[in-house]
Design a protein that fits this description.
about 30% helix; five-stranded mixed beta sheet; alpha/beta; about 170 residues
């Protein structure tokens, strides 16, 4: 089966590279490792059920990688059916990160994703593996690559409640 999934091998902009640290030399996959490096990160973006996970697993198996989910719903524990989470069988032994990491009652933001994804990427690279970011949440991937900036302010629950009480016309 031939895949027609858009595939981007991106060099993260300075914000990501500057926040990650690594050891010395190379890891056999042509990913240079210096104190300030530009890591190669494969990103796969597309709609639900378009084959992103299968492609990510195939790339991971071929090039020694691990998958980081960039899906704003798959981070939640127990939301398996509606989010089409990859099963253990579909993972084919490839480690996956940022799936089932928070309870559904917890708000998980793009800023949380960037922090957690950067930690996962640093961990994967430190073990001489290729990070493969796959998912359908464009804003998460854009934020991770430094192309978009998540809000750096805390939620204002009181303001939110006031606005939710207003009618559409009043807004």
């Amino acid at each position: 089966m031939k895949m027609s999934i858009p595939l981007e091998v991106a060099r993260p902009k300075a914000p990501l590279g500057a926040r990650l640290s690594a050891g010395a030399t190379s890891n056999g996959t042509d990913i240079p490792k210096t104190p300030y490096f530009k890591a190669r990160i494969v990103t796969i973006l597309g709609p639900t059920a378009s084959g992103k996970s299968d492609l990510a697993v195939a790339i991971a198996r071929r090039f020694g990688g691990e998958v980081i989910s960039a899906d704003s719903r798959q981070v939640y524990k127990g939301l398996d059916i509606g989010t089409d989470k990859v099963t253990d069988e579909e993972k084919r032994g490839v480690p996956h990160h940022l799936i089932d990491i928070v309870d559904p009652c917890v708000i998980y933001t793009a800023a949380d994703f960037v922090r957690d994804a950067e930690n996962a990427i640093a961990d994967i690279i430190s073990r001489d593996k290729l990070p493969i970011v796959a998912g359908g949440t464009l804003f998460y991937i854009e934020a991770l690559l430094g192309r978009k900036t998540p809000a750096g302010v805390p939620r204002d629950i009181e303001l939110r409640e006031q606005l939710e009480a207003l009618s559409t016309e009043a807004l």
